[in-house]
Specification:
The protein is α/β, with parallel strands linked by helices. Bound molecules: zinc ion (ZN).
């Protein structure tokens, strides 16, 4: 009777070991079999057998010899870029961004399209599907299989069903995104909150590699947050944790799309920054921004404000400094509450990080407790606006790397 269980255990152990080898090679490559044995603590025979299986299944490839150590040169291994193609997508409030990557997450194709929330859900999803079709067409010529689609969306997501429950800035409710995408494309689909996805992207490929306790902030149309504690995304009891953009920062502040007043995001979103510049201009202050948008104030955007700030424009710099103070206030609260190692600042507003960070740092210095503050670094995202799509790729990879034997 015991045999049945032992067989199961062995298969499970092999599955776990395959996963460990793949993750090692994802984090560091190239590596030799001997180095893999040393890092994992598995014996060399086991490593050789696991690597043989991974090579046969095309997840791993040999890429020449390491002759640096003297003695017989060791064959080096890395993830096989041709093992498959992955699509990462972000459905933002006013854009859709998608990338197609190989199995090593190297970007092969990139596409961005502006959208407007007033177009409506059906039209925006039709655009998203069309972009996936374009990615599939590009990827088809490479003759390697499609492994999945990872999608980040700006709202609350039920991750187990892949349903977008509520996106205040898109005004969408209960959209079964995973179901819709997988019916259309017959591929594994993963859906999560955009900031959670971006946090995963930073952890897999970016600024948070090797960091176990960090907070990712994404400031764009809204302000999203992904909280990683002890190496795991913190989701809370219902999966909705991380909505730090809706912390009340000003009791009688502006109305937020969530219905509350004075939410943090009403003070630091791209709209908040643009409005600061606009108000200063309308109050009669001279600014280079006006020339850059040829007098059309509705064209003011973060890149335009950054361009003006680079030229020393006082209005632009002042608006960014004020934004930095409000960012700093919220970040100081997060540092006190979570004692993170890193706070990574991303989204389109982070394009202005050179002008925001001094005010952020100064405010944190003034407002957070000294002990957690000394341990926390605040930095701009390594991918900026691309963090979420990279995270979409990470969602798919994460699934494969944690259960390679199940993928056929
Ligand atoms: Zn709110």
């Amino acid at each position: 009777m015991g045999k049945r269980y032992r067989t199961g255990d062995q298969a499970l152990v092999r599955e776990i070991n395959l996963s460990i080898i793949l993750n090692c090679l994802r984090e560091t490559s190239p590596l030799s079999r001997a180095q893999l044995a040393e890092i994992t603590g598995l014996n060399k025979t086991t490593v050789s057998s696991l690597v043989r299986e991974l090579i046969a299944r095309q997840f791993v490839r040999e890429i020449g010899f390491d002759s640096s150590g003297g003695g017989r040169p060791a064959v080096l291994l890395e993830l096989n870029p041709g093992a498959g193609r992955i699509i990462g997508m972000e459905i933002g409030v006013d854009f859709i961004l998608a990338i197609l990557t190989d199995f090593k997450a190297q970007i092969l194709w990139r596409h961005r399209e502006d959208t407007d929330q007033v177009e409506g859900q059906e039209a925006i999803l039709a655009k998203a599907f069309d972009i996936v079709r374009q990615a599939l067409a590009v990827g088809e010529s490479t003759h390697s299989p499609f492994l999945g689609i990872g999608v980040g969306v700006p709202g609350l997501v039920d991750v187990s069903s892949g349903t977008l429950l509520f996106a205040p800035n898109l005004k969408w409710c209960d959209v079964p995104l995973r179901e819709l995408f997988s019916e259309e494309f017959n591929l594994p689909v993963f859906v999560d909150n955009d900031a959670n996805v971006a946090a995963l992207g930073e952890r897999y490929f970016g600024a948070a590699q090797g960091s176990k306790d960090f907070i990712y902030l994404s400031a764009g149309v809204g302000l999203g947050g992904g909280i990683v504690l002890n190496g795991q995304l913190y989701r809370g009891i219902g999966g909705y944790a991380g909505e730090i953009g809706h912390m009340t920062v000003m009791s009688d502040g502006e109305r937020c799309n969530c219905g509350n007043r004075g939410c943090w995001e009403t003070l630091v979103s791209q709209t908040a920054v643009v409005n600061r510049v606009r108000k200063a201009v309308e109050a009669g202050n001279a600014s280079l921004v006006v020339q850059l948008v040829e007098g059309q104030l509705e064209r003011i955007s973060i890149p335009i404000i950054v361009e003006a700030a680079k030229e020393g424009d006082e209005v632009a710099r002042q608006a960014l400094e004020e934004t930095g103070v409000y960012l700093g206030i919220g970040i100081a609260n997060l540092i006190n509450a979570f004692n993170p190692e890193l706070v990574i600042f991303g989204g389109v507003v982070s394009l202005a990080s050179d002008y925001l960070l001094p005010a952020i740092e100064k405010t944190i210095e003034e407002r957070s407790l000294a002990w957690p503050r000394r341990m926390a670094r605040v930095m701009a995202s390594s991918y900026g606006p691309d963090a979420c799509v990279m995270g979409g790729v990470a969602l798919v990879l994460h699934d494969i790397l944690s259960r390679p034997a199940l993928i056929t």
